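Field reference: sequence -> structure
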Amino acid sequence: MDNNKIGKFIASLRKERKLTQKELGDKLFVTDKAVSKWERGLSLPDIPILEKLADALDTDIYSILQIEKKKNIDIEKILYDERKKIKKQITKKIALIMIPIIIVICIILFKLIPFGYDVIHVRYNHNDNKIIDLGIPKFSFLMKSKENSYSIKSLRGKNILKSEIKNYLNTLEHISCNDTVYYYDNYADVTIIDYSVKGNLIYNTISYNIRNGNYCNTVEVSDYNEKLGIINRFKTLYADDSSLIVRFLPKYEKDAKENSWTANMYVYYTDENKSKIIEMSQGTFEIKDNELTYYRTKILDQSKDIDIPSVSKFIIKDQKLILEDNYLESYEKEIILN
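Structure field:
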């Protein structure tokens, strides 16, 4: 038996008699949907309905079922076997439809569900051959590296990858310069200055742009060197016509604990009759625009005849430091450090 041929046969007889599916269904006391299923080969009527169907279409059961009329034929068994066959066909069709749907759903979930990131060890060769850590979203692959950059492929969604990278970057120290926030790994002593996630429907490319050391320190060193000259040289007031010696010594690197630039300041007075220390101090400094501010954190020694301020400001001009609010005016009217 072929249920599709049976369905087409029922449909052709119905149409010959100019009956709609609803009209035929009304004659048999079934719905037009039941008639539609017979004609599409999705089901078969029971024997009582089959007999009524044969009468309605002026034919017999054997013709409808397209079998030879023989003695001792078990119609019930034939219908049972055919329904079993139809059920298997429908199950197979549903499976063929559902498998692609399930695959699509799995792909969508894979792209949208957060799985977190792994911190992996990679070699960094630029200026310093060392091992550094990078946060890589899970299920990523094909890492490539250049002098200062790393790229990773991933089949996962762009937005979820960005979210997981941000979660990793939030574990690093945020440093700021050039009106931009960067991400400093204090342990590996490298800075992630930029990252991106770019790609298409199939895969995305994650990129990290790395710089050795604290990037903002490097930027500040360059800026400070431009304004002060070589930053770790003395700035000195030392002239034949002056008895005052002033030395300001900034250090080349920031203090790691306080993340600040440090300096020492020494002021001496000497002439033929006497020599004395006016100030020996330690502190921190910063430069904004063309002004250097020195914050004293510790007075090591000082003269009793002068009040040393906690903060001193210098105007930067032609790589020279000109002291504002001159607390040394009783010794020297103008303090210019070369």
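Note: The mean pLDDT is 86.
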